[in-house]
């Protein structure tokens, strides 16, 4: 059905709105043994659809009608959602729809905003709701089950795209006979209980809709005294988990993002200012290349180890570096605000309740910082630096996509990445620090496997160079951006990678829509084809979804 607006926010010309006509509102001659055929639109059908609209809405002015251009744009935006019904080659009905995301609306939403002024430019493939924009039947063919057959194809859309529900507005054309004696809401409730009949509402209830609310002045509809029902039809076959895998139901205007993965060259610095300048260099590069995310390496702050007081043992030296943690975080916050992008701040040693932990932060353009602790620590980290395992696993919900952080060794544990993938993560950032090639290859090969297993992008950022500090003397890195291995992705499943052991930045564009296609229709589908009858990965502590400000 088509209406002027989602909720009333300001007066608008009512002649523009159009309610969804009932399939059985007007008695019509019966056509014996007619064969109703429903199919998708073709461009050459548009003139007949315009004519069918004119007959179905004969009480509307021309300004309230769509022209051929509107229907052509609707067809172009979402061809799978536009159906027509024909009898003997004659178009006798049609239904239009688009996919939208309506959860957590910030306020009133007008019809033009919802449908792009009838162009369906607002069609959102990643949405979870089918909006039944319009359904109309030629009055001469009402009573032939035309609307019912159109609804069957709408139901198929819900199943095909695994959508949560279908919504629409509806008329209550029988209400004027009872106005004054009962409110519109009381009238609708009586129809739902079967005490009264309404030609429009009963048709909608028969189609499976449920009334969510009754509103006045949503649309101009004199036979309903300008009252309308907001209708919802739930998809009983909706699979929430598959929905998270195929296309996380998030409202966001962007489905591509650019990442800049730093490869930091360890060397002696004279003081904090020199270190801060080296970090700013990477922020300036990311800004120059219009990055959305800058990823820094694990323990990049270890470059300050040579500044520790003489006579410190290794654990004491790391605790000295940890004293710069807050200062470093403020540096990164300032850079994120200044350049207006996200920064994965590598990781830093942080003392928590007397324990040393290795902690990464996602810092937003507003300067908010969100922590992800390293959950698995190597034997060397335990003995040499006194680092202890952290807690919690998080997915960060940003306007650009859902991202997660696994620090170095954590990526070698497939259970973590699987839980993140099932929680909707689309990109996993891996800040790492390895001393030689064999150690690096463990991280690299594990990251490649995680990308394929979970249909995610994996972004590695590491340290290179030499540092005059015990247990940090050598560093080997080759920062890279890894993908799944399927059509639509690079042949070697690598978007970009750095030359080894030089200071540089790897820049790559990530197409999140391609991930959605891969998860739903890929040559192989590792997330969908899991054998839950044989095994499962179950989180003892649930993955936390963090909404990033």
UniProtKB/TrEMBL annotation:
<dbReference type="Pfam" id="PF00795">
    <property type="entry name" value="CN_hydrolase"/>
</dbReference>
<dbReference type="InterPro" id="IPR016181">
    <property type="entry name" value="Acyl_CoA_acyltransferase"/>
</dbReference>
<protein>
    <submittedName>
        <fullName>(R)-stereoselective amidase</fullName>
        <ecNumber>3.5.1.100</ecNumber>
    </submittedName>
</protein>
<feature type="domain" description="CN hydrolase">
    <location>
        <begin position="257"/>
        <end position="512"/>
    </location>
</feature>
<dbReference type="Pfam" id="PF00583">
    <property type="entry name" value="Acetyltransf_1"/>
</dbReference>
<feature type="domain" description="N-acetyltransferase">
    <location>
        <begin position="36"/>
        <end position="232"/>
    </location>
</feature>
<comment type="similarity">
    <text>Belongs to the carbon-nitrogen hydrolase superfamily. NIT1/NIT2 family.</text>
</comment>
<dbReference type="InterPro" id="IPR001110">
    <property type="entry name" value="UPF0012_CS"/>
</dbReference>
<keyword id="KW-0378">Hydrolase</keyword>
<dbReference type="InterPro" id="IPR000182">
    <property type="entry name" value="GNAT_dom"/>
</dbReference>
<dbReference type="GO" id="GO:0016787">
    <property type="term" value="F:hydrolase activity"/>
</dbReference>
<feature type="region of interest" description="Disordered">
    <location>
        <begin position="1"/>
        <end position="34"/>
    </location>
</feature>
<dbReference type="InterPro" id="IPR036526">
    <property type="entry name" value="C-N_Hydrolase_sf"/>
</dbReference>
<dbReference type="GO" id="GO:0016747">
    <property type="term" value="F:acyltransferase activity, transferring groups other than amino-acyl groups"/>
</dbReference>
<dbReference type="InterPro" id="IPR003010">
    <property type="entry name" value="C-N_Hydrolase"/>
</dbReference>
């Amino acid at each position: 059905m088509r209406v002027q607006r989602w909720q009333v926010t300001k007066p608008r010309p009512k002649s523009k709105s159009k309610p969804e006509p009932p399939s059985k509102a007007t008695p019509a001659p019966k056509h014996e043994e007619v064969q109703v055929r429903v199919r998708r639109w073709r461009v050459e059908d548009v003139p007949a659809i315009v004519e069918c609209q004119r007959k179905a809405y004969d009480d509307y002015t021309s300004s309230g009608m769509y022209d051929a251009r509107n229907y052509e744009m609707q067809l172009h935006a979402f061809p799978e959602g536009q159906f027509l019904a024909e009898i003997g080659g004659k178009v006798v009905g049609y239904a239009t729809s688009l996919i939208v995301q309506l959860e957590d609306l910030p306020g009133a939403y007008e019809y033009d905003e919802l449908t792009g002024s009838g162009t369906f430019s607002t069609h959102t493939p990643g949405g979870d709701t089918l909006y039944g924009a319009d359904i109309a039947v030629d009055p001469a063919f009402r009573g032939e089950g035309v609307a019912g057959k159109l609804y069957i194809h709408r139901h198929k859309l819900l199943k095909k795209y695994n959508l949560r529900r279908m919504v629409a507005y509806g008329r209550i054309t029988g209400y004027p006979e009872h106005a004054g004696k009962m409110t519109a809401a009381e009238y609708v409730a009586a129809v739902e209980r079967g005490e009264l009949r309404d030609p429009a509402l009963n048709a909608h209830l028969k189609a499976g809709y449920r009334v969510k609310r009754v509103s006045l002045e949503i649309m101009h509809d004199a036979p309903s005294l300008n009252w309308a029902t907001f209708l919802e039809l739930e998809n009983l076959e909706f699979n929430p988990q598959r929905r998270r895998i195929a296309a996380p139901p998030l409202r966001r205007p962007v489905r591509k993002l650019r990442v800049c993965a730093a490869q930091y060259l360890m060397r002696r610095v004279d003081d904090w200012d020199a270190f801060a300048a080296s970090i700013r260099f990477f922020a300036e590069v990311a800004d120059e290349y219009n990055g959305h995310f800058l990823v820094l390496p694990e323990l990049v702050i270890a470059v300050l180890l040579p500044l520790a007081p003489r006579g410190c043992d290794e654990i004491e030296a790391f605790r000295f570096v940890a004293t710069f943690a807050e200062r470093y975080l403020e540096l990164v916050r300032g850079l994120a605000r200044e350049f207006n992008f996200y920064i994965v701040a590598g990781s830093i040693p942080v003392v928590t309740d007397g324990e040393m932990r290795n902690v990464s932060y996602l810092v937003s353009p507003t300067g908010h910082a969100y922590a992800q602790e390293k959950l698995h620590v190597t034997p060397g980290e335990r003995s040499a630096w006194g680092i202890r395992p952290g807690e919690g696993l998080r997915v960060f919900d940003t306007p650009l996509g859902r991202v997660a952080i696994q620090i170095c060794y954590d990526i070698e544990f497939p259970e973590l990445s699987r839980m993140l993938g099932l929680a909707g993560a689309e990109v996993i950032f891996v800040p790492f620090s390895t001393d030689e090639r064999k150690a690096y290859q463990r991280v690299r090969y594990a990251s490649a496997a995680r990308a394929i297993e979970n249909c995610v992008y994996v972004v590695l950022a590491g340290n290179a160079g030499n540092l005059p500090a015990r247990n940090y003397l050598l560093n080997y890195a080759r920062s890279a951006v890894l993908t799944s291995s399927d059509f639509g992705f690079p042949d070697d499943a690598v978007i970009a990678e750095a030359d080894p052991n030089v200071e540089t930045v790897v820049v790559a564009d990530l197409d999140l829509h391609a991930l959605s296609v891969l998860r739903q229709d890929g040559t192989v589908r590792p997330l969908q084809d899991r054998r839950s009858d044989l095994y499962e990965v179950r989180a003892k502590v649930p993955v936390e979804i963090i909404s990033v400000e």
